[in-house]
Amino acid sequence: MRRGRNLLREAFFSDPRLGVVVCRQRDQSPIEMHGHEFCEIVIVLGGTGRHFTPQGSRSILAGDVLVVNRKQSHGYGDTQGLDIANILVADEVMRDAEVALGSMPGYHALFTMEAVRRSSGAGDAHIHLRSDELAWVENLVESMEAEGRRPDDGGGAMIRVWFLLLVGFLARRYQPRDEKRPGLDARIGTVLARIDRHPEHPVSLGELARGAGMSERSFLRSFKEATALSPVDYVLRARVRKAERLLVAAQPRQSITEIAFTCGFNDSNYFSRVFRRFALCSPRDFRAARRGLLR
Q1: Model-level pTM?
Q2: CB atoms within 10 A of CB 135
Q3: How do 74-89 and 39-53 pair as beta strands?
Q4: Peptide bond before 252: cis, by omega within 30 degrees of 0?
Q5: What does 65-128 look like in DSSP terms, one character per residue?
Q6: 40-53 residue pLDDT tens
Q7: Digit-coded pLDDT (tens) for 151-189
Q8: What are the structural domains of the chain?
């Protein structure tokens, strides 16, 4: 199946109050492979089909849950009454989810480590729900869909609450496909969760390796394979994620220099350079843009 178009964010997130959009397709037709500028969680509620990625295809059926990250290509074929709920998630909501749920090793196994494996040719992340679990998730999706129709009545905030509940549930439910990986994923996931809880705290490579129960050399190799980042870069990115949250917080409103120190940086100029590297804009511009969206 050939690669098709790239779906743009503005086509689906026309209301800035809604960072999560539910698109229900009760009879999904075959669709060529396409990419998109947002993360997508696909829940198969009924029917069957095949899910295509650049690495291949596989059958899907009711109870399957797929995570398709930003810029990843996928499509559907051989559909027979395929009923799916597409949950489209803007980048800033995924960043907020990482802040809220990054202390869960399962979150990192599903959304951090699996994302790297998929980009290197390992296919898509996959969860299969039991019938009782699927019924619960379907009710949750319907609640999200209903809140999306009420943006003037707090729907934007409520849909994010439901979304966090869904992601937390999936993170707890996730199991790696490779039976050899659960122990390693758990150890690396525990280290990532530790960093995300307190990214401002200084930490050495030796401390992280001991936390994973590994030698420094093995830990470095496994960490890079799991995250596509060095431990130093992961810590810096986690500090930037924390800074993003503080930059848009209404109370207390800290200066950029105060935020730099709060997030573990001893030099505000260095903080600005690191922030620009990961957020692709300055802290000042990030604060102005996000506050503009929240008005």
Answers
A1: 0.70
A2: 12
A3: antiparallel
A4: yes
A5: EEEE-TT--EEEEEEEEEEEEEEEE-HHHHHHHHHHHTT-HHHHIIIIIHHHHIIIII--EEEE
A6: 999 999 999 999 98
A7: 999 999 999 999 999 999 998 887 655 545 556 777 888
A8: 3-92+127-173 (2.60.120.280), 198-294 (1.10.10.60)
